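I'm curious: can you give me some protein's one-letter sequence along with its C-alpha cells because I've never seen that pairing?
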Amino acid sequence: MKLLIVGKSAFSRVIDGTRVPISIAGHTVQLIRPLTAYALARGFSVSYAYPLTASASDCLMFDPDDEVPSGLVEVPFTDPEAPKSPLHVGWLAVEAAIRQAAGRLGGLDWVVLASTFPLAPFLADLRWKYGYKLALLIRGGDGYQWLDPDWAARTFGDIDRAREVCRIYGDSLRSADFVGVASRWLGSVIEERGIRWDAVVESPAAAWAGPSPEPRWDKSRFAADTGVVRRLGYLDPTKKWLVSAGRFHPDKRLDLTSGIFSGAALKGWQLIFSGVGATREEIEDDLMLALVDKGAACVIEVPPRIVYALFKVCDACLHTALPSATFIDARPSSVTSAAFHGKPVIAPLAPAGGVTESLSPENVQAYCFDVQDVDPADRAEVVRRGVDATLRLQDTDVLLRVGAANARHASSSAAASVFDDLLARLSRLPARGKPG
C-alpha cells in the first residue's frame, strides 16, 4: 500500500537548521506516530505531510532525542505569504506536498487525514486529480464544532457565509471513502448533522514502540530519565503517583485537579501533572503552586517517545476536563493510556463526551463521579464529588481490581489492534464515485 498521512507535526526534527517541534495533542502524537510505525513495519510505502508552522493555541515541544522513523518520506509544507497576494498561499504548498509524495512513492493508494478541518474539502477535491482514496479520521472539534454554523461564524463572521462553509465541509465528509471517529459519542454528534461514519478509530494507547527491547521502568528510573523535564517541584519515587496529563489550558480545568487532590489529602500520594511548557508564571492556580511548594505535587513535561512509561509506573489517573462552550473531550488519549496500562481513572460523568468509552464498567462504578446535574461553574460541588471518588483510592483491593478490569477493557486500544481493524476496513472498501 502507498500511504500518505496528513496531520500536524508529530516528531521533533531539524530542517535546514530550523528546529521543528512536536505539536502536543493526544490525537496527533498518539495517532500519527503509531500509525507511521505500524504502516512501515508492514512494508507499506509511507509519506507524511505536515505544516512547518503552528497555530497560536498549539502546545509545542522539542525533544532533542526524538527520531523520525527510518523509511518515512516527509513532505512538509508551509503557509507562506506571496507578494501582492491578498491571501496566504498555503493551499498551493499543500498540493505541492501531495504531488511530491505521489511522485516519490510512485502514486498514492490512500490519503489518511488525522483531524479533518480545514483540509478535508481540499483533499476530497484532489482525489480525482491524483487517484487516491480518502480516509478521514475525525478526532474532536473537527466533528462537533466545524459542522455548526454558529461556531463557524466566530471565524468567518457572517452567519450566511458560515453556513456555506459548514455545507462545504460537511459535503467533503459525506464524500470521503472512509470516515472514522474517535468515539461513539462523536459519531452520534456528526450523525445529527447528516454525516455517516464507518467505524470508531480511536487514538491508540501510549505504548513502547521499539524496536529495541523495552526498558524496565520503575518510578526511580522514570524520575531520573533525562528526557523528563521538571518544570515545578520534584518527583518523589517513594510515594504513590496520581497522574493528570494534558495541555495547560483552561479547557483541562487545572483548578479542579488541584482542588480535588488537595481536598482528598491522600497520605503518601503525590500529584503529577504532565503538560507542556508551563512555568510558575504561567500557572495561575495558587492551590497547585502551594501543593508544589510542599512537595505534594510536581509539574513535568514528558516527550511522546517515553510518555507511556509515566502511565506504566503511576498508580492512578485523574481527569478533570468538563464540557464547555468551546471544548468537549471526545476521547482523551491520557484516559485510554492509563486504562490500557491497568490504572484506575478518576473522571467526571459529564453530559457530553466520550471519556468513559475507554473505561471498564467497574471503573465507571468505582471512580467516576456524576456531574450531569451540576453547573460546571459550581466548582465547589464538582470538587466535592471528585474528592469523594478520589478517597476510594485508599482501598487497595478496589484499586487493583479496577485497574485489572481497565487493562482487559482497553486491550483493544493497542496500536496493532486499532490499525489492524482500520487496514481491514480500508482494504475492502471500493472508492466512492465522483460527484456529478
